Amino acid sequence: MKTQSSDIGYNSKVEGDVIVTKVDAVINWVRKNSVWPMPMGLACCAIEMMGVAASRFDISRFGMEVMRFSPRQSDCMIVAGTVTYKMAPVVRRIYDQMADPKWVVAMGACASTGGMYRSYATMQGVDRIIPVDVYVSGCPPRPEALLDAMMKLQKKIEREPSFKSLGKETEEKRIWA
Amino acid sequence: MSDLFETLQPRFEGLEPRESSDHPAVQCPVSLILPLVECLRDEFHYEILSDVTAIDWEERSPRFSVVYHFYSVQDCRYLRVVTDCPDDENPAVPSIVALYPGANWHERETFDMFGIRFEGHPDLRRILMWDEYPYYPLRKEFPLAGIETDLPDAEIGEETRAKVLAAPMMGGPFVADTGSPMSKSEPRAKDQSWTEWKKKEALEDGGPEKD
């Protein structure tokens, strides 16, 4: 048997029970196909996010159907909606409670830039308090747009060094201000 | 309206009619607000308190007015009651939560936005902004963009070095031109010098010029 992936080439006739590959390739392959999202639904974008999880769009095709409302059990925070200054520390604290490795998707105009809420009460982009991996445009974005973002996130996970959370990169990621 | 007002005026000294472009309105001295509201509820069937808000007149004294909107289901009519806060520095009016429990959150919101205290309110805390927020955002002296402040959580603020920042409108407000076709009537600010707007306009007119 030979798989399609060039990273994990396995020919059982030649190699028996041995797989030759790179650690990064295996770990990232596992990670990207079972991202457990943490839905941080703060406004109307959350409704579109529910649409993504429902049958028509079906996020489980990408191995992401396990929406966890506990930060301890999730890898990817989807910030869907307006981040008010009152909510911002809560978002940050929940992000801090997530175990590494972790990713953040800013879904929609509000989470990315504050959107139409240019005011004293709204944080102008959630990237002021947490590092964002993928931004999704739209107000709110179509479910397809979120799926596209998740596929982009999968590509990003694929390219990352798998032990980045042990190394320097995490430190750099933490200090961005 | 005039019937209602003529019935009320002899009973409430100082009650005056108020200019209004829609519903009947009365101006009530702050000392009479509780008996008046009770009378409206019990004798004139104003069962619903639909709104409590306030006005900041800025220059005028008394500076703050509290506005109540009552609705009578039986008679299908609204009544607006306005009362002036006697003190400009620490404005306060009696709370009507005891008469209309629904006033609870309305009064908290008015307190949050204008800093008007409602005496006798069972739980007068901010409702939209966080408790430590130092300003009253709907007062006239508060700039539209906001004022730089610390985040509600000091620990997070220190960790992320993020702050509550003023967000100026950058030439806004953004207004759409109603006369032109939809493709040309996206909301635009008057001053667009900070955006790539000119480039986009070139695209709309048939793409960037090719040299």
Walk me through what this model shows.
The complex is a heterodimer of chains A (177) and B (211). With 177 residues, chain A is of the alpha/beta class. Chain A has a single domain, classed as Rossmann fold (3-Layer(aba) Sandwich), CATH 3.40.50.12280. Chain A contains 7 helices and 4 strands; from the N terminus they run ααβαβαβαβαα. In chain A, strands 1-2-3-4 form a 4-stranded parallel β-sheet. In chain A, α5 (108-113) links the parallel β3 (103-107) and β4. The N and C termini of chain A lie far apart (50 Å). Chain B is an alpha/beta fold. Chain B has a domain at 2-128: Beta Polymerase, domain 2, CATH 3.30.460.80. Chain B is built from 5 helices and 7 strands. Chain B has helices at 2-8, 33-43, 103-114, 154-160, 197-204; strands spanning 16-17, 25-28, 48-56, 64-72, 77-84, 92-94, 117-119. In chain B, the strands form 2 sheets. A 5-stranded mixed β-sheet of chain B has the order 1-2-5-4-3. A two-stranded parallel ribbon of chain B has the order 6-7. Chain B is globular and about 60 Å long. In chain B, 21% of the residues are buried. Classes of the chains: A alpha/beta (177), B alpha/beta (211). The A-B interface holds A 85-86, 88-89, 92-93, 114, 118-124, 128-130, 177 and B 128-130, 135, 137, 142, 144-147, 151-153, 156-157, 159-162, 164-167, 169-170, 172.
Secondary structure elements and pairings:
The complex is a heterodimer of chains A (177) and B (211).
Chain A: H1 12-15, H2 23-33, E1 37-41, H3 45-53, E2 76-80, H4 88-97, E3 103-107, H5 108-113, E4 134-136, H6 143-159, H7 168-174
Parallel strand pairs in A: 1-2, 2-3, 3-4
Chain B: H1 2-8, E1 16-17, E2 25-28, H2 33-43, E3 48-56, E4 64-72, E5 77-84, E6 92-94, H3 103-114, E7 117-119, H4 154-160, H5 197-204
Parallel strand pairs in B: 2-5, 6-7
Antiparallel strand pairs in B: 1-2, 3-4, 4-5
